[in-house]
Amino acid sequence: MWKVLEHGSATIAYQDYYTLLDQAAQVFSLSMCRVVFLADRGFADTQLMGHLQSLGWHFRIRIKDNFWLYDGKGTLPRKTGRFRLRAGHPRFWHQVEITQARFGPLHLAMGRPLDSNERWMVISDEPTSLETFREYGLRFDIKENFLDDKSNGFQLEASCIRSAPALERLCLVLAVATLYLVSQGTHIVETGQRRRVDAQWFRGSSYLKIGWNWIRRAVSRNDKTLLNHLALSPQPDPEPAMASRKQHDKRTQPRFYGEVREAA
């Protein structure tokens, strides 16, 4: 689901995108899957959280330092930015309410990762723990897709299209192309042929890029070994991408004391 807006800010109001949630809910209802909504601080909106709850979805949303927090025990209210956080030592609050509207009850995970000075404050509809940070961290996987849309693949910005309706139609083309290229790329990796188009010892390219390179190879050689169907495996990634061994080792280090992270 997508919607292209002509907008002067990166922050989008709930009223501008809430219809997309209902459209997505119609699709998800067919599979009866458990949905967990992940979002950064730009989507820290109690209207959104209420909508997600009405859909039966769960959420992990990062909130800002200026949110009021209430716990009903006399130790709060307090702005989240006033809490002192030691690097690597997370704090968890349960059955709290947020904003002066006292929205809740919700659950909060607060922490400052060992490798960063950033403060993570993640609000959840379910009790929080170290697992909450891991789940929220899955949101960063979307950056690989952004890279494929831009400099690593489709060069979307280079189209110089300024019309929102035209970009919305172009997004349909890119979505279909992405689905096919990722299907082709995952198939190549699963069948052990990756190094024919990605020569690194470990996977350095996205699945979309691997699929794209395989199609180029097939066309140049008049090869007929192209996937004739769409198939995305529900299994865990057999070979996670690594830009470099150093970056991979850093990414797989625990962010908080007590956290166990497995290296790929």
Instruction: Give the CATH topology of the largest domain.
Output: Transposase Inhibitor Protein From Tn5, Chain A, domain 1
Q: Which strand-content bin applies to the residues?
A: 5-15%
**Order of neighbouring strands in the sheet with most strands:** 1-2-7-6-5-3-4
Mean pLDDT: 88
Distance between the termini: 31 Å
Structural domains: how many: 2
- The geometry reads as globular
At the fourth CATH level, what is the homologous superfamily of the largest domain? Answer: Transposase Inhibitor Protein From Tn5, Chain A, domain 1
Tell me the radius of gyration: 21 Å
Low-confidence stretches: none
CATH architecture assignment of the largest domain: Alpha-Beta Complex
**Level-1 CATH class name of the largest domain:** Alpha Beta
The biggest sheet amounts to: 7 strands, mixed
Protein structure class? alpha+beta
Element-level helix/strand string? HEHEEEEEEHHHHH
Describe the model.
- It is a single chain.
- The protein has 264 residues and is of the alpha+beta class.
- The chain folds into 2 domains: 127 residues, Transposase Inhibitor Protein From Tn5, Chain A, domain 1 (Alpha-Beta Complex), CATH 3.90.350.10; 84 residues, no CATH class.
- It is built from 7 helices and 7 strands, in the order αβαββββββααααα.
- It has a 7-stranded mixed beta sheet, sandwiched between helices.
- Strand 5 and strand 6 form a beta hairpin.
- The protein is globular, with a radius of gyration of 21 Å.
- The model has no long low-confidence stretch (mean pLDDT 88).
